[in-house]
Batch of 2 targets.
Target 1
Amino acid sequence: MGARGSVGRCVLEQLLAHGLPVRASARRPEPGRFPDGVEVFAADLTDPASLLPAFEGAGQVFLYASRKGVEGVVRTARAAGVERVVLLSSGSVIHPTSAGNLLTEGHREVEAAFVAAGDPIVVPIRPLVLATNTLAWAYAIRDMGSLPLYQPDALTAPIHERDVAAVACAALTGATTPALSGMLTGPARISQRDQAAAIGRAVGARIPVRALSRDAALERFSWFMPREEAEAVLRYLDDAAAGNSPATSTVQDVLGRPATGFDQWAADHADEFR
Ligand SMILES: NC(=O)c1ccc[n+]([C@@H]2O[C@H](COP(=O)([O-])OP(=O)(O)OC[C@H]3O[C@@H](n4cnc5c(N)ncnc54)[C@H](OP(=O)(O)O)[C@@H]3O)[C@@H](O)[C@H]2O)c1
C-alpha cells in the first residue's frame, strides 16, 4: 500500500527486481503510473471495505501507518488471511527523548493496535529521520537563493528511502527477527548545514544557510502542516540540537552492508533541487 509514496515506490521496485509477484495500491491509482504486470487496487486505510479486495490472497502486506481507521485495517487484514504486515512506523517509538511527541504517539498507537490483535504478525520498520525531509528545502534552494533553517547545526543521521525499503523487503520476504525493527538511520550524523552543503555539491551551487528563530520556524512549518505537528517537528530538532539523534547500525545488521550516505542521497535527488 502507498506504492506511489517515496518509500512504498522503492518497496515495489525492489520486490519486482527480486522477481516476486506484487500487487500495488494507491487511494486513487492513475492509469500508467505503475510498472507493467503489477495488479493495481484502489485502497484507502481509512475505508476497510476498500482494503478487502487488495488484501485477499496477499500473504504479506506493506503499509503506511494511519491512526485513523487502524482497527478496521487490522480486522480486514485478519479476515483476508494476511499473515504478515510490514508497517512503516517510526524510530521515535523507541527513541527515549521522543516519548510524548505527537508524531511519536500516533505511530505508537498504530503499532499497539496490531500487536494487541496478535494476528496478523506485525513487523514495524522504524526510520528515525528520512532524508526526503530535505525535499521541503527545494523551493528555497531553487527560488530564494538562501536556505532558512531552524537549528542549522542540529546533527541527525538521515536515511535514504531505498534503505528503508530494503529493510521492509527483508521483513516481507525473510524470517521475522527483532533486528528488522531496530531504529533505522543513515550511516553517520551530519548537521542540517552540512546536508545543505551536500545538496549544493550535487546541484553545483553554493547554498547559503541562515538561521531561523523558533517563532519564525513555527510559522513557516505551519504553512504546510497542522500547528501541533509543526511544534512536534521543532521539538524533534531541539532534541537533535541537544545531541539526541543517533546513528545506528540497523541497516548494516539487517542487510549486511552499510547504510547509504547523505552525499549519495543528494546526488540521487539533485534534479529535484534544480
Ligand atoms: N519524515 C520523517 O523523518 C519520518 C520519520 C519516521 C517515520 N516517518 C513516517 O514515514 C512515512 C512517510 O513516508 P514517505 O516519505 O514514503 O511518504 P510519502 O512519500 O508522503 O507517501 C505517503 C504514502 O502514504 C499513502 N497513504 C497516506 N494516507 C493513506 C491512506 N489513508 N490510505 C492508503 N494510503 C495512504 C499515500 O498513498 P496515496 O498514493 O494514496 O496518496 C502515499 O503513497 C509517514 O508515515 C511518516 O510518519 C517519517
Target 2
Amino acid sequence: MLTLYHAPRSRSFRILWLLEELGVPYDTEMVSIHGSDGAGPIPSDYIDIHPHRKVPALVHDGVPVFETPAIALYLTDLFPQGGLGPLVGDRQRGPYLTWLAYSTGVFEPAMVERAFKTPHQPALGWASADEVEQVLTRVLEARPFFLGDRFSAVDIVLGGSLQYMMQLKIIPETPVFGAYVERLGDRPAMHRALQRDGDIEES
Ligand SMILES: N[C@@H](CCC(=O)N[C@@H](CS)C(=O)NCC(=O)O)C(=O)O
C-alpha cells in the first residue's frame, strides 16, 4: 500500500501529480504545514516518517521515503510500466538521475538565492540563478521535455518547480519556458492532481 503525506499547494503536489500519471492506487494523509488551515499541529510521531516533518513523504508497505527526487525515482522504478523513468541499462538513465538531483541540489537553491536577493556564493556548490536559467533554456529550446521527446518524472519534479517559480515571477516567462509550461499543462494527470489537491484542502 502507498500513502502520500501531503499538504495542499506545497511541494508534495508533484508527487500527487506523479501518482496520477502512474494511475496506481494510493491514499493521502493530510499534513498541516501552514498552521492556518485549522488542521492542528503536525503529530509528533510524523518525525518517524519525515525527520524534518516536511512534505512530501511516501510510505510504502510501512517503509518511509522522503525528499521529492528520491520519491519520484522510487515510484518510477516501482512502476516501470508507467514509462515515466528510464531504468538501469537505458541510455537515458544517467540524464534522468542527473536532472532529478539537479532539481533540489542546484535549481531550488539558486532560485531561493534569487528570491531572497542573496549574493551568489560559488563555494556553496550550486550555480547562480542566471546560469541555471541559461542551462535550462538551452535544454528546453533543443527538445520538448528534459529527456527529449519523452515526458518523464523529471518534467514533474524539475518542470513542476520551474512552473512554480514562473508563477512566483522568480523566473521570467520567456518564449522557451512559456511553451514548455504549456506542454506540461496538456497533461490530464496534472489536472486530476490539481482537482485532488483542492478536494483535500476543502475536506
Ligand atoms: N527537500 C525537500 C523539501 C520539502 C519541503 O521543504 N517541504 C515544505 C513544503 S513546500 C514543508 O514541508 N515545509 C514545512 C516546514 O518546513 O515546516 C523535498 O524536496 O522534498
